[in-house]
Design goal:
46% of the residues lie in helices and 4% in strands. It is mostly helical and 160 residues long. Strands 1-2 form a two-stranded parallel ribbon. Helix 3 (64-70) links the parallel strand 1 (52-54) and strand 2 (83-85). Helix 5 packs across helix 8 (151-159). 21% of the residues are buried.
């Protein structure tokens, strides 16, 4: 997967969790990530047929065995080609531990079970909002505002 480098290289092994690596992000990287411009090179991957525009985001290969051993049905993610953007990307924050990765997988599973042109268009629309506004889409409020419909329980029910 092609991406712009937005983090400093470290000699020690770094963590796969986003929250553990914040200190490594460069000044330019912060700006590129805010507007999701670090994802632009992935369009080459789409042209090569390695990725789709919409689908579950690929995980680092180093995490495959950890996730496969700890997340039930994780292999189902391999049934579809990974995407530049996806349902989990527009509906869930970055995962910083195995529990959060498991929850994020539920969103990926929801996408896999309900793949449609309509769902892809909705994901693309939400992604465009994030890119143009430079921050998370307001749909993430579903996770943090208890007065709004709880999207994660609907995903959990669908995945069961």
């Amino acid at each position: 997967m092609l991406k712009f480098r937005t983090m400093r290289q470290v000699e020690q092994e770094s963590s796969a969790w986003a929250g553990d690596n914040g200190y490594r992000i460069t000044h330019v990287g912060t700006w590129l990530r805010k507007f999701r411009l670090d994802e632009l090179p992935q369009f080459v991957n789409i042209l090569l047929g390695d990725m789709n525009l919409v689908g579950p985001r690929p995980h680092p290969a180093t995490n495959f065995h950890l996730f496969a051993a700890n997340i039930p049905q994780y292999e189902l993610r391999l049934a579809v080609r990974p995407g530049v953007t996806g349902w989990a990307q527009t509906r869930y924050l970055y995962a910083n531990n195995l529990e959060q990765e498991t929850e994020k997988f539920r969103y990926d599973l929801y996408y896999i079970k309900n793949m449609s042109t309509w769902l892809d268009l909705r994901i693309l629309f939400d992604t465009i909002k994030v890119v143009l506004l430079g921050h998370r889409s307001d749909v993430t409020l579903l996770l943090s505002d208890p007065t709004r419909e709880d999207q994660s329980s609907r995903v959990r029910d669908t995945a069961a």
